Task: structure prediction
Amino acid sequence: MSDRVDPPMAMLAELTHRCPLACPYCSNPTELTGKERELSTEAWADVFRQAAALGVLQLHLSGGEPASRRDLVELVAAAREAGLYTNLITSGIGLTERRLKELDEAGLDHVQLSLQGVTAAMADRIGGYKGGFDRKMHVARVIADIGFPLTLNAVMHRANLDDLQATISMAQHLGARRIEIACVQFQGWALINRAQLQPSRAQVDVAKAAVAKAVEELRGALVIDFVPPDYYSDFPKACMNGWGSTGLNVSPDGTVLPCHAAETIPQLSFENVQDLPLSEIWYNSPAFNAYRGTDWLPELCQTCDRRDIDFGGCRCQAMAVLGNAAAPDPVCRKSEGRAVLDALLEQDVHEIAAPEYVYRR
Amino acid sequence: MMQREDVPFLPRGVRTCFDRVRETEVLLGPERVLMLDQVGVAVLGRLDGVACLSEISHALSQVYDAPLDVIEPDVMAFVQDLVEKGMVHVRPR
Ligand code: SF4
Result:
């Protein structure tokens, strides 16, 4: 481990795994945590206070669907009381006008609304929830009326990447300040549906050009963040901005993870906030220290000028594709693992008829 | 393009706060944390929703006893950058 460890800036609190939607690209683990094992209101409030004391500034309340927690308003109030900038990541399902007003009073800072598609037909097919799109549009209007700053979070894949322009227009139409256009990342449940979700190279090229144009045209009016599909990149992303460097995740039962998907790495074991203080886990747990910094990186990365840019990429992707969490991310063109990734990609885009989605239920 | 007469302000969902752990002022907004230096603190401290960019530059040039033609481009660039990040909004006077 190299030099000193900085305090974390952001925490993702996965309040629950329960969710009314059934998106085939869900990145939550294939084994979900049941309601009976979720942390209590008071336990979460304590985690928020510990996080703030540790140096966390931004809290993302996520799930599953965080609105499935009956105590969501109390949790937001507790987070604000702890001094955290509080962001709600939601599909909108389960948020009534009354509840949104209560969240406003509780001090919620920002709402990030997911978008499964720009038409009811597409959105409800992807979400596997009939009527979901209409409810989401209603929620978006209430959000605008209250005045919450809004980010639209559009997950893009083969079936909807061609609707990119309409997706950006929808963000403007709904009064969003920001849009996150994230191409599906293959983690958790999404891996099961990789072949159906993988866009084609032609789709990706068109999308990239469209995004570049929109960024210019809408500068100052709409912030556009684009996450391109990994498999079509030459070099990996700086996953989590470096393992154990900036952020941490707390899962519904209080397990503390260096990233959302870290539990897919079988040789790591993770601590729980019910057993240990958060700061102890952040600074000293073997799981957080396993891939921290760059000292652990293989020779290929040690001698590469991108070492301090991408830190070798995503550990969970190396695990999922290569079965070795300590290998360079297989997205990297310089790595041996790239051949494996290319073979998967080849298979994905040449499936004669992509099989049906396997919904997350 | 932003004008000198435009009035900058922090929109809802963007706020400054003192980070006790890092002992520095920060600007918090949707998916963003910006650590502020002395200049940043001085400029943002003057965003009261009334003063225009030109007035803010004038005030700072007096406080720091620095020529306006040095201060103003810095203020404009700083605010423009935050506008593009969605952290500051401007309205015409
Ligand atoms: S060799 Fe390692 S550091 Fe260099 S680009 Fe590939 S993954 Fe990143």
Remarks:
- Residues A 235-236, 300-301, 304, 306-307, 310, 312-313, 328-329, 332, 334-335 surround iron/sulfur cluster (CB under 6 Å).
